[in-house]
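1st attempt posting a full record on here, be nice pls
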Amino acid sequence: MNARFIIICFVLALGLGYLFRTKPEAIQGNPESTPFESPVAVQTLPKPTVAPQVSGVVPPVIHPLNAPLPIERPQATLPGKRVNPRYLNKPKDMSVEFEMINGLAVAYGDTILGKPVAGFSESRGISDLSPAKYWDHGVVPYLIKNDVVDPDRVLRAIDYFNQHTHVRFVPYENQPDAILFQVGEENCLSFLGKTGGVQPVFLSDKCRTPEITHELMHALGFVHEQSRADRDQYVEILWQNIEEKYQPQFAMVPEPLMNAYYDSPFDSGSIMMYGPHVFSINPEVNTMRLKSGQPLKSIPDTLSPSDVDRVNRLYP
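the predicted structure (as tokens):
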């Protein structure tokens, strides 16, 4: 009786041990322990799965245009137009005019300065602008958010830089500094140079590969060609033909922003140069005229040879 009872207990113990055994596939570190760790899942999920926090540079000084300013703001008169002399002359300091676009302070039409200080409620203002910083070793990590329409238009611009310049755009893998392509409402917008952290490039649905290439030039540290501090030697701005609200986009930049050019000559064929009719009051009249007498061409679709040379000299 006792022997039979012992045998039955032993058999039951073996059966229970089998039922409650530890399955090898549940052991920590096994690739099959959870579907999120499987090789297939890793390949299909973006890195990072949650977009990193976008950093913005808050301008140190912002003045509403209707408030007392530390600079003079008389009005100059041109035929049929009132033009702020800030746009006519080379700036003597680092202050630039901006407009508010979707909660951001934007200068020169597409250059993000940052978010204004708390309590700022004006539609336009003036802020100090710091000289551009450049990307270490010419390597620019990037990430495209999942809701960006037609990401191939971004990849085409990136591939062009990678094939024709020394700059290398590489996929984002938790690097401290990077560009995040994300949806914009109406404009293509970028910071000037590297801000530090993950900085946005905003793209509306109408931003094509040439416009994205233009914004990436801003992100690398380059300004609009017609806004160069030496532009008056090469181009005449026809202020009377420019819609008044767009006049700030033709203002000259502060001299320190020319550091990226290394004495590169003016290039009317640059992808950073506006076309002859951009922001014109009439599509049949020009907003600019080259002093050489040569016709001003339309905005190119790719970098000019001079653009490539500038990028390569800045990022050897």
